[in-house]
UniProtKB/TrEMBL annotation:
Alphabetical keyword list: Cytochrome c-type biogenesis, Disulfide bond, Redox-active center, Signal-anchor, Transmembrane
Keyword Transmembrane: yes
Protein name listed in UniProt: Redoxin domain-containing protein
Primary localisation category: other
Length: 175
């Protein structure tokens, strides 16, 4: 009885060590499923404020600026005019801006967008599937995606006009 008990204890200890090592390695290496620069941008299928369902495939071949935001997020609200200014500047140069709202109801988002004067496509991520797929935390987070669908830059936090312009200029230069 003592020998079998000791064997069970050793097996349990080894199992704990293996699982602990895996957890630590995964945490340190960042392989938790979050997309990184150089990865293909996750696809999405979301309801737009226009009432239509939009997919990432609609924008294939275009560089994209995908901004995750919420009306309750003060930095998100503050950066929205800069995003709109850049959307206006780059719209004829193959750069598509997309705003993905984090789970708010359509009326709240629609009222905010009208009040601020945003006219680039706004998508509603009601069940936060895209938030999970893109690994968003905190907000705002903006993904700069090349025309080949690869993530060139991920910016966490509020963007100002100059930083946004510099990022898009880099994005537009990519083949």
């Amino acid at each position: 009885m003592g020998k079998s008990r000791r064997t069970v204890q050793i097996v349990i200890l080894l199992l704990i060590l293996v699982l602990g090592g895996y957890a630590i390695t995964t945490s340190v290496s960042g392989s938790n499923g979050k997309p990184k620069e150089g990865d293909k941008a996750p696809s999405f299928e979301l309801l737009g404020l226009d009432g239509q369902v939009h997919t990432s495939e609609e924008y294939e071949g275009k560089a994209m600026v995908i901004n995750f935001w919420g009306t309750w997020c003060e930095p998100c609200v503050k950066e929205m005019p800069a995003l709109q200014a850049q959307a206006d500047k780059w719209k004829d140069q193959g750069v598509q801006f997309i705003g993905i709202n984090a789970g708010e109801d359509q009326m709240t988002v629609d009222n905010f967008v009208r009040q601020v004067g945003v006219n680039f496509p706004i998508m509603l991520d009601r069940d936060k599937t895209s938030i999970r797929d893109y690994g968003i935390s905190p907000m705002p987070t903006t993904f700069f995606v090349s025309n080949t669908g690869k993530i060139s830059t991920i910016h966490i936090g509020q963007l100002d006009l100059d930083t946004l312009d510099a990022q898009i200029s880099q994005l537009a230069k990519q083949p």
